[in-house]
Design brief:
Blueprint (H helix, E strand, L loop, with lengths): L1 H31 L6 H28 L1 H8 L1 H6 L1 H30 L3 H22 L15
Length: 153
């Protein structure tokens, strides 16, 4: 079960990244191009945020139920904080990704509540970009020493 969830989580990162890029580009183009906010624009934000929530749920399952790494870390958090690999997986990765989900959700919520087309795009663009930057910073890229994961599951 662990391996299957880990592979799914790793594969879905690409779905999230693609949707994040599409959302950021769409919302910036709408904001800077002074376009009207359409159902299509709303759907792009919805799909991005939904993919983030799906990824978070799988990540939480891995974190709290299946991951042998977090089980080791949780057994002695003091020691885990001194080990860069355990600290990354038990604290840094999950914290960063939860922040990214919150930013994406804030962008969606604030965008939907805005009355003007410009503000819908502006708020979505800013918060989706911030979310994307946090995601990019917290993905365990292959070149990251000791914590890197392969690009494809």
């Amino acid at each position: 079960m662990y391996s299957g969830l880990l592979h799914t989580h790793s594969f879905l990162r690409w779905v999230v990244l693609i949707l994040a890029l599409v959302a950021v580009v769409t919302y910036f183009m709408g904001w800077l191009g002074k376009k009207n906010y359409t159902r299509r624009d709303d759907s792009i934000g919805l799909f991005f945020v939904a993919s983030m929530h799906t990824q978070l749920l799988i990540g939480l399952l891995l974190y709290f139920v299946f991951s042998p790494i977090t089980k080791v870390a949780m057994s002695d958090m003091g020691a885990a904080m001194k080990d860069p690999v355990l600290r990354y997986w038990s604290v840094e990765h999950i914290t960063g990704m939860v922040v990214a989900v919150i930013l994406a959700q804030m962008g969606r919520t604030m965008s939907k509540r805005s009355l003007s087309h410009e503000n819908k795009f502006k708020r979505g663009a800013i918060f989706y970009l911030l979310s994307l930057l946090v995601i990019l910073a917290m993905i365990p890229w292959p070149w990251m020493a000791n914590i890197g994961r392969s690009l494809m599951p």
